[in-house]
Amino acid sequence: MNFKVTNVSATSIKPEDKELYLKVYTDPEIMKFIGTPLSQERAECAWDASIEQETHIPVARRTWTLSENDPKRSIGIAAFGLENKEDKIATIGCMFVLEAHGKGYATEVLRKVTELAFEEYGINKLTSYSMLTNKASYKLMVRLGYGYKEVLTEHDEIKAGYYWFLTKREWLNFLKTNKNTSLMIRAINESDPFNLGNNK
């Protein structure tokens, strides 16, 4: 299923999108606020799995190539993939080439992918992860109604990042009470590390 938002068009990945896919997952600058860049070998394996899973019924994963509407050029990848088939829990995310950063594309794209996952693909819960230093991702996820838990490092229990989550029921309630998608810090969040509550 393809989709279009105000500034970005999304089409299901095709073999000719491989170069873009490998670029975003292996580029250290793109990945520095997301996680460790993939090696070329691991990126190739991830690409093969993404292409193969596009045809699964029921849905196992959906991946889209993102393009600017004007000028027309490929700028990123968005996806969700099942991590728990029985409970229909999926991870969600999007990444953009550096030239597309700071334009607000992630908000409109991730909002649409969240909507599709719940309303078209029958997902019950979405999850994601962001690094502690990724203020842009933090702002984006709370803007879309996701709650979070702080993730600690395994040994020294230092805060390492945020585990994000949103159920279908929470999403529908969020839409009813936040029709203009203004920034909202959910009650489930016990802290506001970037002091966003004072910058609505």
Could you please describe the fold and organization of this structure?
With 200 residues, the chain is an alpha+beta fold. It has a single domain, classed as Gcn5-related N-acetyltransferase (GNAT) (Aminopeptidase). The protein is built from six helices and eight strands. The protein has an eight-stranded mixed sheet with strand order 1-2-3-4-5-6-8-7, with helices on both faces. It starts with a strand and ends in a 23-residue tail after the last helix.
- Whole-number radius of gyration? 17 Å
Total count of helical runs of at least 4 residues: 6
How many distinct folded domains?
1
Spatial strand arrangement across the major sheet: 1-2-3-4-5-6-8-7
- How would a crystallographer describe the biggest sheet? 8 strands, mixed
CATH class: Alpha Beta
Per DSSP, what share of the residues sits in E-state strands of 2 or more residues?
25-35%
How confident is the prediction overall: mean pLDDT? Answer: 86
β-strand number:
8
Secondary-structure content class: alpha+beta
Low-pLDDT stretches are: 180-190
* Structural shape: globular
Summary tags:
200 residues; alpha+beta; Aminopeptidase; 6 helices
What's the layout of helices and strands?
Blueprint: E1 3-4, E2 8-12, H1 18-26, H2 28-31, H3 40-53, E3 61-68, E4 73-84, E5 89-96, H4 105-119, E6 125-131, H5 135-143, E7 147-152, E8 159-167, H6 168-177
Parallel strand pairs: 5-6
Antiparallel strand pairs: 1-2, 2-3, 3-4, 4-5, 6-8, 7-8
Helix pairs in contact: 1-3
